[in-house]
């Protein structure tokens, strides 16, 4: 039987050098060459790419030109001129209101066009916008309707960079707009309107979902789009996702006692650092068959990067039948690895538009529980499982007539969006842990009692 397998490396990867993450963690300071940067970027900001030969003209002598742009448009403009040394293009991030971003973009385009006219370099300079792939599907619209409408209304030609350029560390694509300066600027307004709408919808969904797990440090996990403000995104157009932490690293510790109990681990103070390693868990995630290729990636690169990033073993089981609509993904790793791996898989399906429009990605996950704990998961009269469903918004099914396997375990089925799915998994594993602890106490008590009876 063949499995597509990706296992994590033996050692945690070294932190990448040259990334912008560390630069952007502190407060920003105006740089000597027009780098008026804000510490974080989101899809509320406008990120564009400009030909390197125009960077000097945009900055101006002693930074006067870029200072004039920031003053007139009430924007902060970060020109990432030191990134990608020798590259033909450089990224610029504009931090402002939508109107301020558009005004600054127009001024930058005008500066480049004037320079191009004087040097007779080219007629029209295309506008290149950087955006998270999470929002591209909604920008394009069903059958490309949104993009076609913008092209028709503005008289532009819009193309989007290939999905093949994406990987686990780069989740962004380039939107190239060709046309007159006026047409490009009008298209920018409409494009950013769509991207901001998609961004705001995602933020609302995430804020609603994170309330299910108070104190959860998404910043440490780094599983979602770098454009979401709950993370520490890079300001450049090719952001680097933070690598998996060193051995023993546990983002679930040290936040709140509620979170620690939710994830089945005692508070950080109760665990000596050298004993902080967690048990390996196995989860069985079912994804649509049409998503398998995207998850594996070209020559298996994406699934390998995902395993490396999450610190998990990831296997895609063969199809049970030729026309199977779902495939099982077997994920083995610590709670942290499970969260990261499953989160990125949910995210990948959203990026690939496997679930269309505003439809939330909902997947089914199976976890195995000892048959002795199944009753506790259900609760008296189904009380526990009903409370679990109410708390997490996930559908939880514990089949009553299951025959335990050779390890005396039965399957619990969980279906829901990522946070609902993950919260239900954590709560069920917490119940399992409690049952195991009670069984251990009972066994210890049985071993001690004969000595006391003498």
TrEMBL record:
PROSITE patterns reported for this sequence: KH_TYPE_1 (PS50084)
Keyword terms: Repeat, RNA-binding
Keyword Nucleotidyltransferase assigned: no
Keyword Repeat: yes
Organism placement in taxonomy: Eukaryota, Metazoa, Chordata, Craniata, Vertebrata
Polar residues bias (residue ranges): 22-31
Annotated region (Disordered), positions in chain: 1-43
Gene that encodes the chain: igf2bp2a
Database matches in InterPro entries: KH_dom (IPR004087), KH_dom_type_1 (IPR004088), KH_dom_type_1_sf (IPR036612)
Annotated K Homology domain residues: 42-113, 123-196, 279-350, 361-433
Listed name of the protein: Insulin-like growth factor 2 mRNA binding protein 2a
Example GO molecular function: RNA binding
Gene3D superfamilies reported in the protein's UniProt record: 3.30.310.210, K Homology domain, type 1 (3.30.1370.10)
């Amino acid at each position: 039987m063949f499995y597509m397998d990706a296992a994590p490396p033996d050692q945690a990867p070294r932190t990448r050098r040259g990334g912008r993450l560390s630069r952007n963690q502190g407060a920003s300071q105006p740089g000597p060459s027009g780098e008026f940067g804000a510490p974080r970027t989101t899809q509320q900001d406008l990120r564009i790419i400009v030909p390197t030969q125009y960077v000097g003209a945009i900055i101006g002598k002693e930074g006067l030109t870029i200072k004039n742009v920031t003053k007139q448009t009430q924007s902060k403009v970060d020109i990432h001129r030191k990134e990608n040394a020798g590259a033909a293009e450089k990224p610029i991030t504009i931090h402002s209101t939508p109107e301020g971003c558009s005004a600054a973009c127009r001024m930058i385009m005008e500066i480049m066009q004037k320079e191009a006219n004087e040097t007779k370099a080219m007629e029209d300079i295309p506008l290149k916008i950087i955006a998270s792939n999470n929002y591209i599907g909604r920008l394009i619209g069903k059958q490309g309707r949104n993009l076609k409408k913008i092209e028709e209304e503005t008289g532009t030609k819009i193309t989007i960079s290939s999905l093949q350029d994406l990987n686990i560390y780069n989740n962004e694509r380039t939107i190239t707009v060709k046309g007159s300066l006026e047409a490009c600027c009008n298209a920018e307004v409409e494009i950013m309107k769509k991207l901001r709408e998609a961004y705001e919808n995602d933020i609302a969904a995430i804020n609603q979902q994170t309330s299910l797990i108070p104190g959860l440090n998404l910043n440490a996990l780094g599983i979602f789009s770098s454009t979401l403000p709950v993370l520490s995104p890079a300001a450049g157009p090719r952001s680097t996702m933070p690598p998996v932490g060193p051995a023993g690293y546990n983002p679930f510790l040290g936040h709140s006692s509620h979170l620690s109990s939710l994830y089945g681990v005692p508070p950080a103070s109760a665990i000596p650092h050298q004993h902080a390693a967690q048990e390996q868990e196995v989860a069985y995630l079912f994804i649509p068959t049409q998503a398998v290729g995207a998850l594996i990636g070209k020559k298996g690169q994406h699934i390998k990067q995902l395993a490396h990033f999450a610190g998990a073993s990831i296997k895609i089981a063969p199809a049970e039948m030729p026309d199977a609509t779902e495939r099982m993904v077997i994920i083995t790793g610590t709670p942290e690895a499970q969260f990261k791996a499953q989160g990125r898989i949910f995210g990948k399906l959203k990026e690939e538009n496997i679930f269309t429009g505003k439809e939330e990605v909902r997947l089914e996950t199976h976890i195995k529980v000892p048959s002795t704990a199944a009753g506790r998961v259900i609760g008296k009269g189904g009380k526990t499982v009903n409370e679990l469903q109410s708390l997490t918004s996930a559908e939880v099914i514990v089949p009553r007539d299951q025959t335990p396997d050779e390890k005396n375990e039965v399957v619990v089925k969980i279906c829901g969006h990522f946070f609902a799915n993950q919260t239900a998994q954590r709560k069920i594993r917490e119940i399992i842990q409690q049952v195991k602890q009670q069984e251990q106490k009972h066994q210890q008590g049985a071993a001690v009692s004969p000595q006391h009876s003498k």
